[in-house]
Design goal:
four-stranded antiparallel beta sheet; mainly beta; single chain
Amino acid sequence: PGQFAINSLGNKMLVSQFNANALTFYDIESGIHGSIETEWRDIGENPYAVAFSPDGRYGLVATYTGEYYSENPNLMHSTLMIYDTDPQSSTYLQRLTRIANLKRSQ
């Protein structure tokens, strides 16, 4: 694992899986040891930093190394992904957006 974050209610946890390029979302109140609600795989190269929004409705993860930019294999970019972690939402457990820091030509 890279890092973990617990939401403000203390019942959900995000864990970045650095070497597996995945993000795991846990319900830490389910069962004796908690349970995995979902694992998002192949989310980008080396996911590392994770956080919840203050209201706990969104989970965020940033990649450490970045991915190769398809138009220029010598250029890499890191990404920030936002996931819906609100069980009341119609998009629960879906990735809502992916933001990359690409350099644009002048």
